[in-house]
Amino acid sequence: MTAAFLGAVFSKDLARAGRLADVRLPDRFPVDEDELRFLRDRLREMVQDVARSEWLAPRMMVVREGRRLAGHLGFHGPPGEDGRVEVGYGVLPEYRRQGYAVEACRGLFAWAARERGVTRFRAAVSPANAASLAVVRRLGFRQTGVQIDPEDGEEQVFEMELAEEAWVEPGSK
Question: Does the predicted TM-score (pTM) go above 0.70?
Answer without folding.
Answer: yes
